[in-house]
Amino acid sequence: MLGLKLPTDPRWVNIVEKNIEDILTDHAFCEQKAASTAISLIVSFPEYTELVQEMTALVKEEISHFKMVHDKIIDRGWTLGRDRKDEYVIQLVNFFPKGGSRTTQLVHRLLYAALIEARSCERFRLLSEALEDQELAAFYKNLMVSEANHYTMFLGFARKYGERKEVDKKWHDLLDYEAKIMADLGKSQTIHG
Ligand SMILES: [Fe+2]
Ligand SMILES: [Fe+2]
What we know:
mainly alpha; binds fe (ii) ion
C-alpha cells in the first residue's frame, strides 16, 4: 500500500527494543522535522493556496505528535536528548538534481516528504506489531495511521501540481533509489536507521 520496494528487516525491532530512550528521542525529532518541513513549504511556496492550508494543519498535527512523544519521554523519567543527523534523509534528498523550475522543485520536495512519511509509517507498523511493551505498541499503531494519511496527501499534491506521468516516473525512480539506501539500514535504534 505504501509502494516501498524493500521491507525493513524485522530484526530492527529487536535492536530498537534494547534502547527505548534513544528511539523516543530520535522519534521526537522526526516529528519536529516534519513540522519544520511543513513550515518551510509554506515559506517557499506561498502561492500554492491549497498546499499552504494543508501545511498549516500539518504543522499543528506534527508538533502535537512531538508533544505526545515528549510526554512519553517524561512519563518514563527521561529527558529529551540531543538531535542527531538522519543519514537516511541526508542520502534520500540527494536523489533529484538541484534546480529546475519552481514547480519541479516543489514536486521533488513533495515526493521526498511522501517517501519519508511512507517509510516512517512502515517502521511504526513494525513497532506496533512487534514491541513487547504493549503501551508503546498501541501508541505506534495510532501514529501509523496519521503518517499513512500524510504519505497520501504529499503524493497527491505532487500529482496535482506536476505533470502526472512525469511525477509517477519520478516517484518510481525514487522508490528504487530508496530501496538501495534501505539495504544498508535497519540496524540501529533510530526511526530511519
Ligand atoms: Fe507525525
Ligand atoms: Fe507525518
